[in-house]
Amino acid sequence: MSTHDSATTPAPDLAVARRRSAELERSIAADPGRFRVLTGDRPTGRLHLGHYFGTLRGRVRLQDLGVDTFVIVADYQVLTDRDVAEHLAEHVEDLVLDYLAAGIDPDRSTIFSHSSLPALNQLLLPFLSLVSVAELRRNPTVKDEIAHSRQASVSGLMFTYPVHQAADILFCKANLVPVGQDQLPHLEVTRTIARRFNDRYGQGDSVFPEPDALLSAAPLLLGTDGTKMSKSRGNAIALSATADETARLIRGAKTDATRAITYDPATRPEVSSLVQLAALCQDRDPVTVAREIGDGGAAQLKKAVTEAVNDHLAPMRARRAELAADGGYVREVLRRGNERAAAIAEATLAEVRATMGMAY
Ligand code: TRP
Fold first, then answer.
1. Between the CA of residue 321 and those of 42, 87, 109, 112, 239, what are the distances in Å?
2. Which end of the chain, C or N, has fewer beta carbons within 10 A?
């Protein structure tokens, strides 16, 4: 029927994405000024160790390499899998505090929320015209989220949020998006929209870049019950947890019946995840960490992990507490970030309207 269906991109190939990411890492190291990064999170609660080692740490690294970094607090997106976003202001504050504590520097990175950028949101309209309903239906990540959603029906926002996410990325013409594997289909939507916009309206000029995914080499960190670490499962260790809470959570973590501690993720996932966690905190090799504990067993392992986590997080936790005590600071960071992002969004929207022949 439409050109959309014939131009559908193939399912993103993980091996290809990995190779491309390795290539990108080399280009970033050689010339960080060529890149603009956009990433972000839904404000649904405090970030945990899985977020930290999976994405946060990587963002700080890119920022420190000199890449222009935008971090979006995706507040509208909270409404994709629930009817009402509760405690939103509190979650936004917690999220920004976690960012700042982890090392995102508001003088070098732009932290903003998409609800405060009308021009970003308006991009959703032309972008929606560039994708077919069939394509939206095929998105594997959205399908999966719908399958796991506890909602009685699927909202239009849930169905279209990958297009909204394209607006999040393209409003500032980001060309690099650090993501986990589950976000690859969304990035493919963004690339498709950028390409179609350029083809349909650009008259040979490219208005939008086709951004690349930068796959984070996310280590598999399990929660204390041995399943994926996730706030909603109650098995996560928050970055902002106290040292005592951390000790208690790790003490209760699932292990196995074999005394000698080894690093063998395939056959001993729970023990290996704990070993991995200590190794990540200390920037050491997990095999060495496991060998050192050896016959000390699970008790010794948990003691070592608790110490490693608490030592690693202590400066972040102290900084977080300090910033949290300064009532207006987070709001000021967001105000500045929103202001900078809004100026860029308005310029992009003006360009889009002009390109579409809507400048009247
Ligand atoms: N979908 C992302 C998540 O659930 C959050 C997000 C919103 C995002 N907009 C984005 C990530 C743009 C990368 C780029 O965590």
1. 22, 20, 21, 21, 12
2. C
